[in-house]
């Protein structure tokens, strides 16, 4: 946590020195550079060489609406906002929940979905915040799950993993008592494991958004307009239905 705080502070300082591409520059180039993790199904996932998932398809639909081609970059989750502030790409779509610490380092779009962090454990394992007392929990490093699980009174060992899927694997292998992650991811995990695990309580809610470099208001405005349009013309609803069987927009 301390390390994450330092990183984001350093990031806020870095942001002052470099120039992000403006909307006019992006438009002129004809290509928008987008970064994601590619290891967070069903939102962003790299299957072989194919990048797919709800956020990948949504970002591509937004770019299309803006008349732009897409150049994707994948980065470990922990590096995504740092790379953004080093101008390696124009925006990030990787399920970042809006929180005050991140909002100091980057600017967020209007949220592209609403969700929460939920517990998953084996039957008989901890299913509520109270039951996490003294229990070990697996979470992905650098996430809001880590931040929120640490706040659970009396929680046992909180173990971090480089990817969310590695944190899930730790639960399945019995190396921890519970996993905390996205509630929709949790639903998929329970389904995939066919009853070997169960979903417990929601620990917190969050609004998830795309991130641009701080001050890149031209690009942010275009992204927000494209998202509003996609949410108005059925594009968003169709994608959401495909991945979740429901509409995950914030209401
Ligand atoms: N929503 C959580 C957060 O804001 C998890 C995001 C994880 N994203 C990813 N691509 N692994 O921290």
TrEMBL record:
Question: Which InterPro entries does this one have?
Answer: SBP_3_CS, Solute-binding_3/MltF_N
Give the SUPFAM superfamilies listed for this entry.
Answer: Periplasmic binding protein-like II
Where is the protein found, in the record's own terms? Cell envelope
Decide whether keyword Secreted is in the record: no
Could you tell me which residue ranges the Solute-binding protein family 3/N-terminal domain spans? 31-247
Per UniProt, what is one Pfam family of this protein? Answer: SBP_bac_3
- The main location is other
Keywords recorded for this protein, A-Z: Signal
Gene Ontology CC terms: cell envelope
Indicate the secretion signal residues.
Answer: 1-20
Q: Which SMART domains match?
A: PBPb
What's the family?
Belongs to the bacterial solute-binding protein 3 family.
Name it: Amino acid ABC transporter substrate-binding protein
